[in-house]
Design a protein that fits this description.
This protein has twelve helices and 13 strands. By secondary structure, it is of the alpha/beta class. Strand 1, helix 1 (about 10-25) and strand 2 (about 30-35) form a beta-alpha-beta unit. It binds nicotinamide-adenine-dinucleotide (NAD) and 2'deoxy-thymidine-5'-diphospho-alpha-D-glucose.
């Protein structure tokens, strides 16, 4: 199979490429990524020499480039997005361009090429947020996005769904909860806590820190994506979650404990505007229909993630200094 992965230099996309080539070593992958601040080719050092892997630096909004690439593949796995909620609050425009117009561009190219299989990576955030006693989100939960990021993802999901309804494009969509694992950009909560502690800094927790996220290991997420690609019903959406609701302050406490620091490292700072209180996912559909469930224990996965960040200090230090952005020029001229 020939696959176009978009956003494959980011956190989940780069883990997906490692995962997929590990499981399907005869497949070919083209990785289309613009290398925004979030794209880091150093995530792919171990596989960049492979003959069945190709990197293309480019924008999913570039119509000619996308048309050319889509003609070469059997499957598109679409991760590329502006993904950070805080950035969307302060500069929403890029979220509209990449997440909505970029997704539309890919859909058009897939349609024009006679219906290339298309898997769209969405998020649980399109469903809004939950109160403490609400049932978890499932595939039937009405959309109620609450940030420019989640609104742009909701719009992109609807375009993907409409390309199935109107044009019979063979699509599937997955909605996953908060991921953690190696290669996560260190402005997101878990790697931010770890790197701040390693730098002797405080941990900034928004508001009271009692907001809840359902954490899942990135490899469980990508195994779910693989399951949907291989066995999912065309036109359907699937929710993926970790069965692991934890408050932000408890995440901070777990990391403080593992890394041997005291709670005085926690600093409560101004809250995120419109901060979503709780996310939780009911993944019983994919569990019953496709036999998927998350497998990686959170305590174990978190310890491994901390160990990885300690052993790969250069990786995150090069992000902080900006040096990671020179790697493209060094490798690709
Ligand atoms: P990320 O920000 O780490 O990576 C995004 C990648 O997309 C980067 O490599 C970036 O360079 C690339 N990109 C951005 N704009 C582009 C453009 N216009 N053209 C081509 N490439 C572009 O994001 P992530 O955390 O890996 O998330 C990947 C996908 O998964 C996103 O669609 C996100 O909405 C979704 N998602 C993320 C999580 C999570 O917890 N991180 C959970 C559920 C869903
Ligand atoms: O639920 C899936 C979503 O998870 C994805 O769609 C997004 O792409 C991904 O970024 C993530 O969104 P969150 O906003 O939940 O992730 P973030 O790591 O930014 O924040 C996690 C929680 O921690 C959230 O409640 C905000 C809080 N937080 C975050 C930061 C960066 C803090 O308290 N302090 C911080 O400095």
């Amino acid at each position: 199979m020939k696959i176009l992965v978009t956003g494959g230099a980011g956190f989940i996309g780069s883990n997906f490429i490692h995962y997929w080539l590990g499981k399907h070593p005869d497949d070919n992958i083209i990785n289309l990524d613009l290398l925004t601040y979030a794209g880091n080719l150093e995530n792919l050092k171990e596989i960049e020499h492979l003959n069945n892997y190709e990197f293309v630096r480019g924008d999913i909004c570039d119509r000619d480039l996308v048309n050319d690439l889509v003609k070469k593949v059997d499957l598109i796995v679409h991760f590329a997005a502006e993904s950070h909620v805080d950035r969307s609050v302060f500069s929403p425009r890029k979220f509209v361009d990449t997440n909505i117009a970029g997704t539309h561009n890919l859909l058009e190219a897939a349609r024009n090429t006679g219906g290339v299989r298309f898997h769209h990576i969405s998020t649980d955030e399109v469903y809004g947020h939950l109160g403490p006693n609400d049932p978890p989100f499932n595939e039937k939960t009405p959309y109620a996005p609450r940030s420019p990021y989640s609104a742009s993802k909701a719009a992109s999901d609807m375009l993907v769904q409409v390309y199935f309804t109107t044009y019979k494009l063979p699509i599937t969509i997955s909605h996953c909860s908060n991921n953690y694992g190696r290669f996560q950009f260190p402005e997101k909560l878990i790697p931010l806590i770890i790197t701040n502690l390693m730098l002797g800094k405080k941990i900034p927790l928004y508001g009271d820190g009692k907001q809840i996220r359902d954490w899942i290991h990135v490899d469980d997420h990508n195994r779910g994506v693989e399951t949907i690609i291989e066995k999912g019903r065309i036109g359907d959406t699937y929710c993926l979650g970790g069965n692991n609701e934890v408050t932000n302050i408890d995440i901070a406490r777990m990391i403080l404990d593992i890394m041997g620091h005291d709670e005085d490292k926690i600093e409560h700072v101004a809250d995120r505007p419109g901060h979503d209180v709780r996310y939780a996912i009911d993944f019983s559909k994919i569990n019953k229909e496709l036999n998927w469930e998350p497998k990686i224990d959170f305590q174990k996965g978190l310890r491994e993630k901390i160990k990885w960040m300690i052993e790969n200090e250069q990786w995150w230090r090069r992000i902080r200094s900006g040096e990671y952005q020179d790697y493209y020029k060094q490798q690709y001229g």
